[in-house]
Amino acid sequence: MVNTLAKALVKAIGSAVVFASLSHAQTEADRDRRLAELERKVRILDPSFKADEAAFDDRLAALEKRIDEVLARSGSPAASTTVSASAQPLLPKAPLEAISVTGDYQQSLEGETRLPVSGYMDAHFNKAEGEPGRGDFHRFVLLFGHSFSDRIKFWSELELEHALVEGGEEKGEVALEQAYLDFLVKPWLNFRAGLVLSPMGIVNERHEPPSFNGVERPVVETIIIPSTWREMGAGITGDLGRGFRYRTFLMSALDPSGFDAEFGIQNGRTGGFESSFRNPAYAGRLEYAGVRRLTVGISGYTGVSSGDIVAVTPRTSIVSFDGRYSFKRIDLRGLFANTWISKSGELNLAMERLTGLNPNVGSQMRGYYAEPAVHVFPRRWRNDLILFTRYEKYNTQQQMAPGFVPLPEFNRSSLFAGVTFKPNADVALKFDYVFNRNAGSAIRPLNGLNLGLGWWF
Question: Could you tell me which of 371, 360, 270, 364 has the C-alpha nearest to residue 319?
Answer without folding.
Answer: 364
